[in-house]
Amino acid sequence: MEAEARKKLVAEKFSELFGGQPQLWSRAPGRVDLMGSHTDYNLGYVMTMTIDQDTWIAARARQDGRVCIRSLNAAGGGDFALDSLEQSRGCNWTDYVRGTAWALQQAGYRLTGFDGLVHSTVPFGSGLSSSAALEMACAVMFQQTSDLKLDPVEMALIGQAGENQYVGMNCGILDQYSSALGQAGSALLLDCRSLTSQVTPMAAGINVVICDTRAERNLAGTEYGERRAQCEQGVEMLRSHYPDIEALRDIRFEQLESHRAELPEVVYKRCRFIIQENQRVLDLAQALPGGDRLRLSELFRDSYQGARDLYQISAPAMEAMLQAMLAAPGVIGARQTGAGFGGCMVGLVEEGQLAAFAGQVLNDYAQRTGIQPQVYPVIASPGAGLLG
Ligand code: GLA
Predict the structure, then answer these.
(1) Which pLDDT belongs to residue 216?
(2) What average pLDDT does range 43-68 have in this prediction?
(3) Would the CB of 174 count as within 6 Å of ligand 1?
(4) Predicted confidence (pLDDT) at residue 221 exceeds the cutoff of 80
(5) Hey, which of 60, 184, 192, 205 would disulfide with 40, CB 3.0 to 4.6 Å?
(6) Is 64 a catalytic residue?
(7) Mean pLDDT in residue range 165-189
(8) Distance 78 CA to ligand 1 centre (A)
(9) Is the pLDDT at 220 greater than 60, yes or no?
(10) What interhelical angle do 316-326 and 354-369 show, nearest 10?
(11) Ligand 1 touching residue 339 (CB < 6 A)
(12) Atom of ligand 1 minimally distant from the CA of 131
């Protein structure tokens, strides 16, 4: 849908729900990681990129300390007081809104509430950070209603704090950082320790394509937290040899190998993946601007194989999608994106072959699984801000 038509639709629905016109607009994009699965909470690197699917909020400030939030995409809304968030959880998508408000207040900001209507084109639960997009769109909205000016890195940290401490999902900084600081037209090489990033352009002629398995994904389950705990256990054990290490980021591959026998096999596998994946992010930063096809393809292949065999975050639907992608015309590389356990895969595809690639993947995957996937190219849109 064109931006104008979308804005008109949201404004109409806003006035049906709340009466009158929205006065403030914010937007924040979803993201796709091109390399660096689960490296963020290990304080490593990620090659990340915003996508052109985003979340909008149309709003009007209210002066009674309340937020009333609805969505055009999701049932159930929330109507809550800003001064009693600890006691009131929505137990639905509105907890991302409440969590962002809660974290802003924890950071000492005084908030003015609003009537808000959300409209999102970021698919839910597919691993493209629909929740972070909502959090960042909310953070931008609160800045407008409450007359605040937050640095985008602080905004990302506040979104993460809300998600960790209010929603209860122990995610890293990747999603919020990408949504807050993403750059139009480029990928970002993100350093999750220093929270700095470098714009990394991609060679002309290469397209990023999302291949959504549409398979059930249950990330909030124990798996994500378990992986995180296993990495921490690895750091803990290796610290007896290397007292200065803080995270897997600080361990070299040879160091891990020389203590392999001391680690439980599963912990070793997790650590090995993260250390290698970190290096692959740096290697991708070298390969992406020049577009070295062979190198890109190897890096994507190794990342997926490590995710499947060492980090064990793949799923049958992801494997089926990988096979469909690798058999399709124009493919350069294919790998997982997001947390894994279903959700989306991401491909690098020759621009001239986009249609042929998409057509074949749609058929091939549907035949393999009986599920109708979604396949679409994405381009990097600007990070969160006012809707222009
Ligand atoms: C989810 C989390 C992120 C990150 C990725 C895996 O998207 O929210 O913090 O850990 O998984 O890279």
Answers:
(1) 77
(2) 98
(3) yes
(4) no
(5) 192
(6) no
(7) 97
(8) 26
(9) no
(10) 140
(11) yes
(12) 8
pLDDT higher than threshold 90 for residue 388: no
- pTM, whole model, 2 decimals? 0.97
Question: Which of 157, 175, 277, 303 is the pocket-test mutation for ligand 1 (most atoms within 8 Å of CB)?
Answer: 175
Calculate how far, in angstroms, residue 24's C-alpha sits from the geometric centre of ligand 1: 30
Q: How far is CA 330 from CA 191, 205, 295, 356, in A?
A: 31, 11, 15, 8
Q: What is the pLDDT of residue 1?
A: 79
Does any ligand 1 atom lie closer than 6 A to the CB of residue 343? Answer: no
Kindly give, in sequence order, each residue whose CB lies less than 8 Å from that of residue 348, ignoring residues fewer than 6 positions away. Answer: 34, 206, 207, 208, 209, 296, 300, 331, 332, 333, 334
Under 8 Å CB-to-CB from 197, ≥6 apart: which residues? 177, 181, 188, 189, 190, 191
CA distance 157 to 161: 6
Q: Which residues lie closer than 8 Å to 359 by C-beta, 6 or more apart?
A: none
Q: Please state the atom number of ligand 1 nearest to the C-alpha of residue 173.
A: 9
CA of 278 to the centre of ligand 1 (A): 14
- The yes-or-no verdict on residue 218 having pLDDT over 80 is no
Looking at ligand 1, which atom is closest to the CA of residue 163? 8
Q: In what order do the strands lie in the sheet with 374-378?
A: 331-336, 344-350, 206-212, 374-378
